Amino acid sequence: MEFQNYFPIWNKLNPEHQKQLLGSLVTRKAEKGTILHNGSIDCTGLLLVKSGQLRAYILSEEGREITIYRLFDRDMCLFSASCMMRSIQFEVTIAAEKDTDLWILPVEIYQNIMAESAPLANYTNEIMASRFSDVMWLIEQIMWKSLDRRIAAFLLEEAAIEGTDTLKITHEIIANHLGSPREVITRMLRYFQNEGMVRLSRGTVEITDAEKLEKACEK
Amino acid sequence: MEFQNYFPIWNKLNPEHQKQLLGSLVTRKAEKGTILHNGSIDCTGLLLVKSGQLRAYILSEEGREITIYRLFDRDMCLFSASCMMRSIQFEVTIAAEKDTDLWILPVEIYQNIMAESAPLANYTNEIMASRFSDVMWLIEQIMWKSLDRRIAAFLLEEAAIEGTDTLKITHEIIANHLGSPREVITRMLRYFQNEGMVRLSRGTVEITDAEKLEKACEK
To answer: A132 vs B88: CB contact, 8 Å cut-off?
Structure first.
């Protein structure tokens, strides 16, 4: 599969722009755990995921983390190219959550094409609106949902992504996704275990009653 | 002052687009307290503030509020036109915080021009990126800052907006901005009063030691 198939508005770009974009692409393989973009380092470029999984998160001064959104096959990351727009005044870190194949689109080329091409500018708009929706969902979660519901929802989401009810995940990783202290996560998972919803063992959370867990996240 | 002067990329639009935009504009006066856009009602249109002040906020199912961003003279609100982009999957409410003069730009016209005009699409991108930055700032505040620092920062911001240290504001309004229960705000304001930073009276919070308040919000 070629880049063109991963770029939905390819046919709306003119031949000159297509040529510029193809000529400047960089392919990259990132092993699970690789930091692809670090908030404080300038403009990595736009990341287009061919296959794999990326995680975008922010860090507090004390090193606490919270996941902002995740990117899967065919998703594009704009904020690794934050210098592209002067109004982007925040920093995210992007890491590979699984072994990932991706393309890196250089900022300057993308920016120049976007300045001339309404289709590319509108496509970029849609991507940003989609991330904006992720972030608004996150605010609603943080503000109005209790932590037990957020953990339940996170475990169910992980099970859907991984296609298994036996999740290889530590309490610390869950804490980093949700922006909560590790001890608080551990306490809540033990409560879930007592309620028969999960079974805990070293490095593993097994969902034993998905239905009950789903009720916990709706209540 | 005409609309053209409030629309920074006016000269980058072609005459046909300029004509369409001017021909479809609606001017509106909104008294303080008016709800201009309600999340659940469809596409109001884009709001461009001539003078005044708007507040964008979200509501929980239980009726709790939190301010997402505010709009001042010359600011434009995209999310009152959320049907404009299919990726906008969240709802905000927009209310006038002061008597406000504004223009409403109809969605369909704006959308049609944006589909053809790279300058308008890029301008829209910059506005969205700017709101995105506001929201990321908010997440950092909620996640990593304690409530006392958030209240201190809010009071200083209000004083800067209003140009006075004597703020006509109730504890409930502060609670609605910050997304916290009213009782918690009251308790914290009393603590600030005991520390000599503010003086409380009915419907008023007077900042009596701005320097100490600033230190409280940096600590």
So the answer is: yes
Distance CA B72, CA B54 (A): 7
Tens digits of residue pLDDT in A56-76: 999 988 888 999 999 999 999
Region A19-39: what's the mean pLDDT?
A: 94
Helices (H) and strands (E) in chain B, counts: 7, 11
CATH topology of domain B3-135: Jelly Rolls (2.60.120)
Whole-prediction pTM = 0.89
Q: Which three-class secondary structure state does DSSP give residue B175?
A: helix
Domains B3-135 and B145-218 equal at CATH topology level:
no
User: Closest Cα of chain A to B208: distance in Å?
Assistant: 30
Mutate to test the interface with B, among A87, A92, A114 (most CBs of B within 10 A): A87
Å between B178 CA and nearest CA of chain A: 10
Which residue among A62, A66, A125 sits closest to B125, beta carbon to beta carbon? A125
pLDDT at residue B216 tops 90: no
Q: Is the domain covering A3-143 a CATH 3.50.50.60 domain?
A: no
Contact across the interface for A143 and B118, Cβ inside 8 Å:
no
pLDDT tens for A152-174 read 999 999 999 999 999 999 999 99
**DSSP 3-state of A14:** coil
Packed helices A147-162 and A182-194: angle between N→C axes, nearest 10 degrees = 80
Mutation pick from B82, B130, B144, B180 vs chain A, by most beta carbons of A within 10 Å, is B144
| Domain residue ranges in chain B | 3-135, 145-218
- Chain B residue nearest residue A61, CA to CA: B144
Q: What pairs with residue B56 in β-bridges?
A: B69, B94
At the topology level of CATH, where does A145-218 sit?
Answer: Arc Repressor Mutant, subunit A (1.10.10)
- Which of B143, B150, B219 to probe the A interface (max A CBs under 10 A)? B143
Q: Which tokens is A42 given?
A: 């300038």
